[in-house]
Amino acid sequence: MRPYGERWRAPYACDPWGSRGRLFPEAVSPTRSEFQRDRDRIIHSSAFRRLKHKTQVFVYHEGDHFRTRLTHTIEVSQIARALARSLGLDEDLAEALALSHDLGHTPFGHTGEDTLDECMAGFGGFDHNAQALRVVTRLERRYAEYDGLNLTWETLEGLVKHNGPLLDAGGQPTLRYAARGVPLAILEYNALQDLELATHAGGEAQAAAIADDIAYDAHDIDDGLRAGLFRIEELRAVPFLDGLLTEIDARYPTLDLSRRIHELTRRVITRFVEDVVAEGERRIAALSPQSAQDIRQAGDTMVCFSKGMTEADASIKRFLYAHMYRHPDVMRVRAQADSVLRDLFRRFKAEPELMPEEWQADLPKDDEPRLARRVADYIAGMTDRYAILEHRRLFDVTPDLR
After folding, report:
1. Please, which domain of life does this record's source organism belong to (predicted)?
2. How far is CA 136 from the centre of its chain?
């Protein structure tokens, strides 16, 4: 029975009452839809709480005003819900996907992922998207009857494929995974529950994915300016941002810097969201989908930027890469974080008894790939702060990460 007051959905939205279900069947809730239950399980997970102390670009102690994985995730969730509502998609599923999209990230931002990937080079590598799937299907241990969160097919599908298909029509890995193949964790789970890796995800996952891009652009501009990594006038090198700054200065010629920064970032979000809605409406109208499966099988992304805004997004990312992500101060901290995680990986792999007891359970020491994956799981789940504390416990000298 559908609850009273349920929001309208377009025919092409994923329907929680028509879900393909869960790996482990459960009784339907009398008060919440299936996607609402997924969202709530994600919010109450241990992995979600740890996002509070995981870095985006800066390490955790650099200031309370910079984004963490948690604040970033909340911002992505807000944008994803706005897009879903405007396009007639299921808001709860879009929110669940936004809230879960970073659960597989390591401490110390993308540095941690790069480091673990290199450490795991002989054991299948490390991929944060595959790790998120491991978290919600295996590593969360809260329920009496199964490991993981037992999320719906639609949420798992969206989590794995929010950036597009993993396989082409011939069953070969797509460009993202062409060189290395689809991560084993995804293939292993797909053997249990077919996630249709050769199709796009539903519209809700596409909304969450583009919301991630929008949030990144806006808050990295904000954080970079407030950290002094670049000046606001340098942003005029990006034509899209130059136009927004000209608009702000014409309307508020004496505005102080802090408010000027906020006026810029809020306009970035607004223009991107309005563009995605307009482009999404145009593409959906051309396709005229009558089901969520029509969206999946469209052969192209439906919820995305227009051609012009795609270039604006790319130009912002090019600027941030040069002026923020590769800034000498950031690169110095990245190098220190890299050394911390490499030290931890080598030490735990050589002496797994140094990990907490629950991480040693059922772990044969003569199975090196399994041992390496267990160590990677343990380290990937750490917060920045915990990784530093573990390093101090095990080593005489720990970098300051400043």
Report:
1. Bacteria
2. 13
Phi, psi of 120 (to 5 degrees): -95, 15
Angle (deg, nearest 10), helices 384-394 and 328-350: 60
The listed CATH number (3.40.50.2300, 3.40.630.30, 3.40.190.10, 1.10.3210.10) that belongs to domain 16-342: 1.10.3210.10
Distance (Å, rounded) from C-alpha 110 to C-alpha 106? 8
63 burial via Cβ count (<10 Å: 0-12, 13-18, 19+): exposed
User: How many angstroms separate the CA atoms of 19 and 83, rounded?
Assistant: 21
pLDDT one-digit tens code per residue, 335-358: 999 999 999 999 999 999 999 999
DSSP string, 331-360: HHHHHHHHHHHHHHHHHHHH-GGGS-HHHH
Kind and range of the H or E element at 222?
A: helix 203-226
At residue 63, the pLDDT reads 47
CA distance 80 to 95: 6
